[in-house]
Design a protein that fits this description.
97 residues, 4-stranded mixed beta sheet
Length: 97
Amino acid sequence: MLKFNSSQRRSLAARAHHINPIVMIGKDGLSAGVMSELDKGLSNHELIKIKILNGDRKARALLLEEICQQLEAFPVNHIGKILVIYRPETEGKEPAC
């Protein structure tokens, strides 16, 4: 998994502030279709928001971890039911902060 320092994380969180969630995850959880849409979103935008409709904080944190592991992405933020993840276009590329 990618590692960033706190200033890079803050910069990515600031960039994500004005974007809307591209995927909403409901009671069915992480289906193949949801993972496909998340992968497409990361490929197109690098930085995306996800809204989770069900579950408590621990369940959402586990979901964030699972998404990031499967998609080789970096967890930027988890506030309430909104998750923000980042995946650079190419491996080894620094975030455009």
